[in-house]
Amino acid sequence: MNKKIFPLLLLLPVVFLLGRLSAQEDVQPSCLMCAAEYLSLEEISKYMQVGRDKGITDQQLRSIDVGRAKVQIAVAHRGQLEQRIGRVAEHDLVTEVYYVLSGSGDIMTSPELIDSVRRADDNRAVMTLNGPGHNAADVRNAVSHQLKAGDVFIIPAGTGHEFTRIPDHITYLMIRVDPDKVVPLMNADESAKYLDEQL
Fold it and tell me: How far apart are CA 131 and CA 123, in angstroms?
């Protein structure tokens, strides 16, 4: 190896490290002076009760601006399902993370939609839950997953999903990641008002 090049090669990691450290000094919080948000077990339980008693599958508890994105918290409750309906849901811009609270169910997923139809702009889910997307009759190359209490499941934006079987029920907390900020904000006062109207 050329004796003049060798010292330069030794310097490269040092230069890289100094560059990384100086870049870190310039980093600013993406959500400047933002407050934390608290959701109590009591509030979540009330939403679960509304879901069971009134058959409302998906309810938003919060939609919070966290700087470069919004984050939504929802509770979903689904009753017994013996066989699939053939109504695949897909959300163009919002990723969903499920944390299963109780029950179990089989869900299939695939980004390859068959006979998809865009959801109407005035659809409740589009306006208040998960933004624009599609319903589809089916998917190609489906992957099936069995969910049970305690499991976590991530459905990226653009991925079709449908429950195909629910032996008794499934209730899950849902965290929605909304980088394009398509879902309207919802705070604790709005949540309390909603619950007052439902209970």
Answer: 9
Judged by DSSP in three states, 96 sits in strand
pTM of the model: 0.85
Question: Is residue 75 a contact partner of residue 51, using CB atoms and an 8 Å limit?
Answer: yes
pLDDT digits (tens, 9 = 90+) for 6-43: 555 555 566 566 666 555 678 889 998 999 999 999 99
Taking the C-alpha atoms of residue 199 and residue 48, their distance in angstroms, rounded to an integer, is: 11
Using DSSP, state whether 85 is helix, strand or coil.
coil
Residues 6+ apart with CB under 8 A from 193: none
Q: CB burial class (10 A; 0-12, 13-18, 19+) of residue 38?
A: exposed
Domains of the chain plus CATH, in order, are: 42-198 (2.60.120.10)
